[in-house]
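Hi Prof. W.,

I finally got the DUF5345 family protein prediction working! I wasn't sure whether to trim anything, so I left the full sequence exactly as given:
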Amino acid sequence: MRFNSDEELLNKLSAELENLDMQYADVSIPSLPELEQLIAAEAVERRRRRRKELLLFLLLALVLLGIVIATLSSAPVLYWSLQALFLLTALGSLGARRLRLRRKES
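And this is what came out:
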């Protein structure tokens, strides 16, 4: 959109700003006690959510640790072979990535 003069641009901007002011004219500002109550409720909710996430994390960590210890005690060959497989997979993917980067550079 092109404007022929600065005055047209200024009029258009003023009209848009007036439109924006009219849309937010009826917004009421909450009172201080309401705002404090809202902040306190949000803090309690955040604390509750954080505690729930921490408990879920600890439960999942304990389950995974139990699985690892059970696998290690019942089938050590399986455990060590899985460890070796994961290590070789990680090293292989890093090597493949390095080769791809070298091919891109040359």
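The two ends are 46 Å apart (CA to CA). Does that look reasonable to you?

Thanks,
D.
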